[in-house]
Design brief:
Strand content: under 5%
Shape: globular
Number of helices: 17
Number of domains: 1
Order of helices and strands: HHHHHHHHHHHHHHHHH
Distance between the termini: 27 Å
Helix content: over 70%
């Protein structure tokens, strides 16, 4: 490695408030998606055009989890790249992950069994981070921890590659992950008529794109010609325009189609990649994104982990103790939405200050 490469590499991950805002916005979009699923099963002919449009768009709210994957791929890979020369690399990484993930995760599982009930299969698979394969075990997914299963499976393996491979090899591996997942989502529905969208191989392109972002941030110069050519294609304005057009077309297509679902995942992953790259790379600030870095979106980002895990429990309680969303009572639906959102925010805020932050303070006792 040349001296210029060493100098170009980073030793500390900067804080970007807009990334918190993006994470919080993604969590909110997932909440809206799950809230409106009850309404999506009812006839909407009597609803006004605006509510029908919101209902249609809410079908794609699950795309928020794809934003999570790209963000996670960038943030975790960046931290791994910074620490990869340290002697306590694995010890510190897995302790950090455990302190960040497990406390709220355990609370989520306890609440799921206590409040929703009949969740032991979901709990056991969640504890071994295999709940994204729940249909293989004929287990009813009671919550949203399948996304964490994908991430933890990935980060069980990925740190070894980051530790041992050259940066050029990591680039190739990340591009291979992206291409493999995209191809699987095209080939499998065409060849077999089936696609298990929660299986890890189908969702690695978001994590791979995040890793590519981290590599660009960590070493912004001295790349091989082939890697630079691939990045030029990935970062081209033409590909961005195609992704935007694709997103517009996908909104008009049936959400149930497996090919459309696969295309949506790829499109959202790429648009999230471009958005995050715009935030983290040096250059002229984009005023259009200013709102992401202040106020409500940033606060949602701070509570997003608890918010994401707890909201299915709150929505279950709202559906149990209040009347379901009714097509002729838009005011009632709005009131239930505000109630569910407010309760989830309160619960997540308490979790942040009573669980997450105190547990993070334990780092000084376990990190070397």
């Amino acid at each position: 490695m040349t001296r210029s490469q060493v100098i170009s590499q980073k030793s500390k991950l900067p804080y970007f408030s807009k990334l918190d805002g993006l994470r919080g916005t993604a969590a909110f979009v997932v909440f809206v998606h799950h809230f409106l699923q009850a309404a999506a099963t009812q006839k909407a002919e009597s609803w006004n055009w605006f509510f029908r449009l919101v209902l249609h768009l809410s079908q794609y709210g699950s795309s928020g989890v794809d934003v999570f994957f790209v963000l996670s791929g960038y943030l975790i890979t960046s931290l791994l790249l910074i620490d990869r020369g340290k002697p306590n690399y694995f010890h510190d990484f897995y302790w950090k992950r455990a302190l960040r993930i497990l406390p709220v995760y355990f609370v989520h599982l306890i609440l799921t069994q206590w409040i929703i009930g009949n969740a032991w299969g979901y709990i056991w698979l969640s504890l071994i981070f295999l709940v994204n394969f729940s249909q293989r075990f004929d287990v009813d997914p009671k919550g949203v921890s399948w996304t964490l299963s994908i991430e933890e499976q990935f980060y069980l393996i990925w740190p070894n590659f980051v530790r041992r491979l050259r940066l050029t090899s990591l680039y190739y591996l990340a591009f291979a992950l992206v291409l493999t997942s995209v191809l699987l989502r095209v080939v499998m529905p065409l060849a077999t008529g089936k696609m298990a969208i929660t299986y890890t191989p189908y969702r690695c392109d978001g994590l791979g794109l995040g890793a590519i972002l981290a590599l660009q941030w960590f070493e912004p110069v001295k790349r091989s010609p082939l890697i630079q050519a691939l990045l030029n294609i990935l970062n081209s304005n033409l590909l961005l325009v195609l992704a935007i057009v694709s997103a517009v077309v996908i909104i008009t297509l049936p959400a149930e189609s497996q090919l459309v679902a696969g295309a949506r995942i790829g499109t959202v992953n790429y648009l999230a990649y471009r958005l995050i790259r715009r935030i983290i790379m040096p250059g002229k600030a984009n005023r259009v994104l200013t709102w992401l870095g202040h106020g409500v979106p940033v606060y949602f980002g701070r509570i997003s982990y608890s918010f994401y895990l707890y909201h299915p429990v709150i929505l279950f309680l709202v559906a149990k103790y209040f009347r379901p969303i009714n097509s002729s009572h838009l005011g009632q639906a709005s009131a239930l939405f505000v109630l569910a959102l407010g309760a989830t925010i309160v619960m997540s805020t308490v979790s942040l200050y009573a669980i997450e932050l105190p547990v993070q303070s334990l780092r000084r006792f376990v990190l070397k």
